[in-house]
Amino acid sequence: MTATPLIAVTNLRKSFGTNEVLKGVNFSVNEGENLVILGRSGSGKSVTIKCLVGLIPTDEGEMKVFGTDVAQLSYQELNEIRLRIGFLFQGGALYDSMSVRDNLSFTLKHHSPKLSNEEVQTRILEVLENVGLAESIDKMPSELSGGMVKRTAVARTLIIKPEIILYDEPTAGLDTITSREISDLILAVQKKYKTTSIIITHDMACAKSTGNRIMILKDGVINAAGTYDELEKSSDEWVRSFFI
């Protein structure tokens, strides 16, 4: 018996004016899986995951998350689904005027307002230890390196204990060593928190180390899908061009 995918997207279409970005995207993600989505700039990778959580309205298609088509939900119902999903934005999206502690506290209190202050502080320290940033708890974002900003953003995502995490270019703008550390962190999160993830990336080293499966978007549809090794050996020159 095949398990029902945690995420199932069918015929997803999205245009911006006359620019048809997604022309019928179909894919699924199984529970506990890391799916990497590759594609050239402007291919619709980030648009796809933003549609999944209702940040961008779709034109057509079905997007089932936890068995429910998110495109058909009311605002309140969509928010209930979002409480189970972590979204790691490309730039980290930390509040510049808040310390690391306060960035995490703000998110957790918004998500779980009934927690005591002691419980909030315990959860903050736990996730910061898991991303290797416990000593930076009272630093401001301006005092953090690019890698530390990404780690803080991961911690802020983890603090709500999401079942699904959507990573938008998690290693963008980072040097090779720091990128590898973030990729290792994504794997550690998958293992420790049993998360299911979609990872949008241009970074082939990140794709290779974090992805159980890889999809490639081209001309608004999924052009190829498989493991890193399978796609690297593809007979399609365009697919192989990603691996050079």
Cα shape: globular
Radius of gyration over all CA atoms, rounded = 18 Å
Q: Describe the strand arrangement of the main beta sheet, using strand numbers.
A: 6-7-8-3-9-10
Low-confidence stretches: none
CATH class of the largest domain: Alpha Beta
| N-end to C-end Cα span | 38 Å
At the fourth CATH level, what is the homologous superfamily of the largest domain?
P-loop containing nucleotide triphosphate hydrolases
- What is the helix/strand order? EEEHEEHEHHHEHEHEEHH
Can you put this structure into words, describing what you see?
By secondary structure, this protein is of the alpha/beta class. The protein folds into 2 domains: 7-84 and 162-243, Rossmann fold (3-Layer(aba) Sandwich); 96-161, no CATH class. Helices cover 36% and strands 25% of the residues. The chain is built from 9 helices and 10 strands. The chain has a 6-stranded mixed beta sheet, with helices on both faces. A hairpin with a 2-residue loop joins strand 9 (213-218) and strand 10.
Per-chain topology:
Elements: E1 7-16, E2 19-29, E3 34-39, H1 45-52, E4 60-65, E5 68-69, H2 75-82, E6 85-88, H3 100-111, H4 117-130, H5 146-158, E7 164-168, H6 176-193, E8 196-200, H7 204-210, E9 213-218, E10 221-226, H8 228-232, H9 237-240
Helix pairs in contact: 4-5, 5-6, 6-7
Task: Record keyword descriptors for this entry.
2 domains; alpha/beta; 244 residues; Rossmann fold; 36% helix; single chain
Quick gist of this model?
The chain is 36% helix and 25% strand.
